[in-house]
Write a structure and sequence with these properties.
Blueprint (H helix, E strand, L loop, with lengths): L1 E5 H12 L13 E7 L1 E7 L3 E7 L2 E4 L1 E6 H10 L4 E6 L4 E6 L2 E6 L17 E5 H9 L16 E7 L2 E7 L4 E6 L3 E2 L4 E6 H10 L6 E6 L3 E6 L2 E6 L8 H4 L12 H12 L10 E16 L2 E20 L2
Antiparallel strand pairs: 1-5, 1-7, 2-3, 2-6, 3-4, 4-18, 7-8, 8-9, 10-14, 10-16, 11-12, 11-15, 12-13, 16-17, 17-18, 19-20
Helix pairs in contact: 1-2, 3-4
Length: 320
Amino acid sequence: MKFTCEKYLLQAAVTTSSRAAASKSPNPALEGLLIEAAGNVKITGYDLVKGIYTSFPADVAEAGSVIISAKLFENIVRSLPDDIVTISCDDSNLTRISCGHADFSIMGMYSDSYPELPGVEHQKSISIPQKTMREMISQTIFAVSDNEARPVYTGALFEVENGKLTVVAVDGYRLAMRRETPESSDMPDCSFIAPGSALQDLEKMCDDSDETVKIIVGSKHISFSVGNCVLVTRRLEGEFLDYKKSIPSEFKYELKMERAGFLRAVDRVSLIIDDRVKNPLHCVFGENRLNMYCVTALGKGEDLCAFEGDGEGLEIGFNN
């Protein structure tokens, strides 16, 4: 195998695919990246739960493939000068990486020891702008549970219904939901649960552009296509909370406030909270005014925010 390419293309592909490589595994191949050169170059990381592969153009002089340690390869590529990179591999898997005056020779592994990524058999898909997908994840991922005793809640529910895409996460204390209209869809109404770790990677793969993320759902796996990258992950099995029954249809109070100013006030009052003792942040909702305060062993913090509405003195303590 031998190919040359721009360093920035190689680094972007390695950084993205390395997110799916196993940090520790009984199978050393899973701690590596599969590099395949044939027409273009494809780099794959796979930990048996999720896999990411990225393709990019290169000048391929000799087709071939090899597995290289993900951590070592990423560190080497990151350190290279901004120039053309040449990568070659001989029959013994000795892989040479050269760029400018920098030259590395490292031992790789035979590519046939790398497990094949699962295919997603169903071809019905839904597409949504990357910017929107990124926001949907960032506004729900914090409510994904880290309790492995309830694995179904270590992911987020994706629900396609009546032409809308809804993402829901719940950890037993918080419920977060975001609903959007996709750019295009031929997917029938359905729901599936994607692992939180895969969604964290997907969030990093998306940018603030209007280029789309294509979602394909199979019986056991889901694929997310973002530009020249594809993330494939297992679906989580189990019965997810009926979130619609958990959200009240009627409310006694409805208050509106400026979001950025409210968040700044929360951050200021929270400075008094000791990380070792999780004191609550108290909110007292009056008429067009919110009084926030927190009392800890370190002292007391207090701030005011204006809003539209009347909370009639309602007081709520929120975990911080």
